Amino acid sequence: MASSNNVVLDVHQLRMRYDDKDVLHDVTFQARRGEVLVMLGPNGAGKTTTIEILEGFRRRSAGEVEVLGADPEHGDEHWRARIGVVLQSWRDHAKWRVTELLAHLGTYYAPYSTTTIQRPWDTAQLIDLVGLTEQADAKISTLSGGQRRRLDVAIGIVGRPEVLFMDEPTAGFDPAARRDFHDLVHRLADLEDTTVLLTTHDLDEAEKLADRILVLAGGRVIADGSPDELSRSIAGEAQVSWTIDDQRFVHTTTESTRYVHELFRQHGEAIADLEVRRASLEDTYMTLVRRAESGAAAVHTLAEVTR
User: Fold this and answer.
1) Helix, strand, coil content of the chain in percent (nearest 5)
2) Contact, 302 vs 255, CB < 8 A?
3) CA-to-CA distance for 120 and 103, rounded, in angstroms?
4) 263 and 271 in contact (C-beta within 8 Å)?
5) Could you read off the pLDDT of 110-135 as tens digits, one per residue?
6) Model pTM?
7) Chain CA centroid to CA 160, Å
């Protein structure tokens, strides 16, 4: 396991088996303080199981896991006060008002304040942070779906967590709420030094939020790298398109700069509508998942992706 104080999530050869079926196979990764790690993968890839193990809600079958220097299976109250969880839904306390519920939940974190982290968030500040100021005195039962998700996020961060786990947190968000949520995640990571691990099926969201992306398929890590690294990982290919005399041409190459230079050397000003397009994150993700589902060997590091 890692010795650096900057590593707050340290997972080594994590395995999970239900009856006679392995759902996680030697999953290994790290996350550092203030890093946003986005976990991608098709349904059944093992994302939720991995997060539940890190949260201490599920016992693993094998492997080593540390969150904030402790094994989640044996995390005490002081450890749990340092993590936050945004559930996929929070269905209780419909008769509570927003301010009342958050102030009440916050009292559980007050004993765990430190000299560096004052817990919990100030209730009014927290409500403003998640964009619920106008609903502060509203009963939870009257909130819209998007407002309920904002409240779910507020509940998850009320204790000013050092590590925040979120499983598809923007489900049900409209575009404005999604943008506000992205700003919130960046604030938590950049200003509060919070480490964030979240799952999503929205690749555009992953590209906007992630410092690093972890791709799971079939319970294995098949890629691990920044969005830019992953988008360049599929053989570094680029698609060059252009027109000459209103006729369109398309060419795929790993040497786009050299190819464009040669193109202009041959055709000069006759070239129009030139475009160079590298593989998008979606292209890369789909290629990696298709490879994994077709039975290709698992890829555990970015270096292996690019071989």
Assistant:
1) 35, 30, 35
2) no
3) 9
4) yes
5) 999 999 999 999 999 999 999 999 99
6) 0.81
7) 19
